[in-house]
Prior knowledge:
32% of the residues lie in helices and 29% in strands.
Amino acid sequence: MQKGFATLEIIFATLIIAILMGAAIPNAARIIDRVALDYETKKLYTDLRFMQSLGRMTNMNDSHFKTNLDNAINLTIYTDRYIFERFSNSKVYGEHYFSNGVTASKKNGTEIWQITFDDMGKVTPALSNSLTLNSRFKKKTNIIFDSVGRFRGGRE
Length: 156
């Protein structure tokens, strides 16, 4: 009796491993895609809250109930990144590039989109706007802004 593996046993073991890997790789790609989309959504929410707090940091010598666009924070969203800066002096507070495979779009299909938080944290212009983050595998997250500065969203 000989010790060791026969060639046929090695071929079958390799075939079983190849079949299992063929089933696992597409699922892993979908999981990575979903994780990237969730990360970008949470990062955008965090930056939006940060921008609102920056917009609210005003000098109390002015009347607090008047909107002062000098203290406003402007967010410019491109398909692959977003930038937020002070409206009056264009001081850039941050720029973030989306993860590979994640893009931003607006419902009407424009590539550049701007939103401004005034010194009271309200969104200017006072319209309901929607932004969509898309992934490679057609997953979407909608982020909806209202005129008082609230934003909410969910995955489709």
